[in-house]
Write a structure and sequence with these properties.
Layout: E1 2-5, H1 10-21, E2 26-30, E3 39-41, H2 47-55, E4 66-69, H3 81-102, E5 106-112, H4 139-154, E6 162-168, E7 171-172, E8 197-198, H5 199-211, E9 216-222, H6 233-240, H7 260-266
Parallel strand pairs: 1-2, 1-4, 2-3, 4-5, 5-6, 6-9, 7-8
Length: about 280
Amino acid sequence: MIGVTGSGGKLGRATVARLRADGLEVMGFDLAGAPGAGFTRVDLTDFGQTLDAFLSVTARHDGLDALVHLAAIPVNGLVPDAATFHNNLTVSFNALFAAHRAGIRTIVLASSITAMGFPFDEAPPALPVDETYTRATNTYGLGKVAEEAMAAQLVTWADGTSITALRFTNVVAEDEYATFDRAGDPGYRRDLLGSWIDARDGAQAVALALAAAQPGFEVYNVAAPESGSRIPSRQLAAQWFPGTPVADDLGEFESLMSTRKIRERLGFAAVHDWR
């Protein structure tokens, strides 16, 4: 049984669908949703509720084999900045520590491009930006950096624990492709390094991370391997970040948010392309 927090969100819905299509039993946890088989309402800001839900829910499940933690206030600005930080860090601590207490040793955690310099008002050290670069410029990103740091410590608290942090870029649902009508605009998705990911491909990344879980902490960027722009990536790099080193082997439309690690190590291959 795989637990998925934030199962009612855009990425959460796609992840639940993907894992079930793979033949796995899934239990969703969220504030929104109709209670029933495969779903229980849980206030993840409450540690007692979180731990209790992970241990068992009568008539729903009697224990989890792995946890996918996606629940969060998704962006800055929906509530005051401090509230975003406090909510997200509390929810992630509750989820990770409850998993530890419940003996759940395989965890996939949603991190974000905001943990690596978004919105990139200052140039990154090199392009494409890989997982070695960590920088927060707003409270949402600060929360993600803190969550990654917390996970890197908690993973050592019990033998055999695996925590994988997936740094997702902007997740696009299958009915949101109209936004790519602006793909020829030089400023389009500039604060995202031109990157994007279809929700269904994001769910694929979660499934791959679960299947490949090994003891320890690992971070992977998750984006479509090709950008959301019609403008060649090297041209965008020169315009957005003049003087910043660019990889000699950068592909014509390769994402400036590097996906090389997840492709090489986990075999990630995006299926959906706005083009």
